């Protein structure tokens, strides 16, 4: 089977980014969220990002308009997924929420539809257990910002079939992504390493080793990282990183225990760019 129509569940940062690349690559896309206000906001942001592509000569005006025309915003989950070939879940990293959604997807979707999760750390095998089609459940881990980042980690669960993997890999290629094939383990490859780096950066900040600016600069110019760990966590969201860190601590042990300073920042509401303040202050920018 091939993918013709896609549904993305969750219209937050990752969800709208996935919708962006799918629609621009010629796929009809249903973007679903329970919040009509978030759907409207996401379409506006998505349109603005496409317009930036036009201004930079990366996208034609015709391609932008055609991509926007391929997107349907729907609040009802059953309506959004009833006739699609692939569903990509992009809701917060809360296992109970994912299990509830996948149980419903299993009931609402066509029998041959592939059910994918964009989770960055959690068990695809456990998510698949909420369905009667574990062979058609897979992980498709995109990176933020989706329209700029080239990689998708494809994660095989215990019972994911080769056909499901092959169709998913072909889909990722059609939307212009490079892929790596991962056999499921908590954190996969990128999140597992990135959480260690980011957490150690918070420990060093807590110890007074350096300022956020100097720690970020050291990794960018000394290790050739495109972003420093604090710039990255502010982009991802400190609350998102903390949930990932807590899950890895639970599944992989003490070396992933969240730094107390990360926990303190989240308790203070310093969640990153999305609220105007994280490690850095963006209120005047």
Automatic annotation (TrEMBL):
The lineage of its organism: Bacteria, Bacillati, Bacillota, Clostridia, Eubacteriales. One of its GO terms (molecular function) is NAD+ binding. Residues 5-184 form the 3-hydroxyacyl-CoA dehydrogenase NAD binding domain. Keywords: NAD, Oxidoreductase. The record marks 141 as: Important for catalytic activity. NAD(+) binds at residues 10-15, 33, 93, 98, 120, 144, 274. Belongs to the 3-hydroxyacyl-CoA dehydrogenase family. Residues 187-282 form the 3-hydroxyacyl-CoA dehydrogenase C-terminal domain. Pfam families: 3HCDH, 3HCDH_N. Pathway: Lipid metabolism; butanoate metabolism. Gene3D superfamilies: N-(1-d-carboxylethyl)-l-norvaline Dehydrogenase, domain 2 (1.10.1040.10), NAD(P)-binding Rossmann-like Domain (3.40.50.720). NCBIfam families: PRK09260.1. One of its GO terms (biological process) is fatty acid metabolic process. SUPFAM superfamilies: 6-phosphogluconate dehydrogenase C-terminal domain-like, NAD(P)-binding Rossmann-fold domains. This is 3-hydroxybutyryl-CoA dehydrogenase.
């Amino acid at each position: 089977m091939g993918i013709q129509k896609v549904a993305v569940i969750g219209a937050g940062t990752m969800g709208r980014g996935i919708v962006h690349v799918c629609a621009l690559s010629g796929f009809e896309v249903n973007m679903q969220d329970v919040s009509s206000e978030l759907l409207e906001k996401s379409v506006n942001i998505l349109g603005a990002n496409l317009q930036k592509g036009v201004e930079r000569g990366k996208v034609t005006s015709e391609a932008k308009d055609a991509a926007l025309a391929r997107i349907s915003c729907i609040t009802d989950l059953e309506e959004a997924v009833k006739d699609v070939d692939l569903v990509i879940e992009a809701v917060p990293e809360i296992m109970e929420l994912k299990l509830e959604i996948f149980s419903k997807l299993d009931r609402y979707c066509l029998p041959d539809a592939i059910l994918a999760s964009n989770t960055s750390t959690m068990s695809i095998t456990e998510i698949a257990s909420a369905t009667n089609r574990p062979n058609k459940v897979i992980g498709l881990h995109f990176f933020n910002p989706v329209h700029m980042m080239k990689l998708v980690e494809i994660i095989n669960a215990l019972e994911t079939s080769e056909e499901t993997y092959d169709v998913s890999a072909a889909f990722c290629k059609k939307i212009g992504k490079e892929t790596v094939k991962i056999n499921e383990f908590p954190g996969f490859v990128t999140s597992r390493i990135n959480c260690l780096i980011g957490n150690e950066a918070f420990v060093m900040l807590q110890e007074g080793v350096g300022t956020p600016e100097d720690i970020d600069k050291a990794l960018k110019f000394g290790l050739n990282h495109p972003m420093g760990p604090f710039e990255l966590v502010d982009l991802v969201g400190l609350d998102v990183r903390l949930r990932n860190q807590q899950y890895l601590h639970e599944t992989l042990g003490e070396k992933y225990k969240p730094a107390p300073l990360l926990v303190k920042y989240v308790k203070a509401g310093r969640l990153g760019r999305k609220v105007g303040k994280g490690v850095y202050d963006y209120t005047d920018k």
